[in-house]
Amino acid sequence: QVQLVESGGGLVQPGGSLRLVCAASGDIFRLYNMGWYRQAPGKQRELVASVSKGGDTNYSDSVKGRFTISRDNAKNTVYLQMNNLKLEDTAVYYCRAQRILPSTVEWGQGTQVTVSS
Description:
Helix content: under 10%
Structural class: mainly beta
Mean pLDDT: 96
Distance between the termini: 40 Å
């Protein structure tokens, strides 16, 4: 099993930037597909961005062109660079790790991102 710890959240003004960091431990990181999800109050958790173990990336339409996901297998870390933040980006952001064989999904504890003027 992999353990995930997120950091980098905080309060930022509209148009600002933050970088979220998810540090993994406990298993072979390069075997995992990684993703960032978010959940705003009263809403369902949604996919923000993902990066496969092979490095393929995918983004939700709402963040495309503003957010960038990346991974560093040598550091067992996945990043989410968030630029041009909007009020509607306010949410708790969660890191997710998925391994195909054996079938495994793990979540981090979440980090709060608040965009406010």
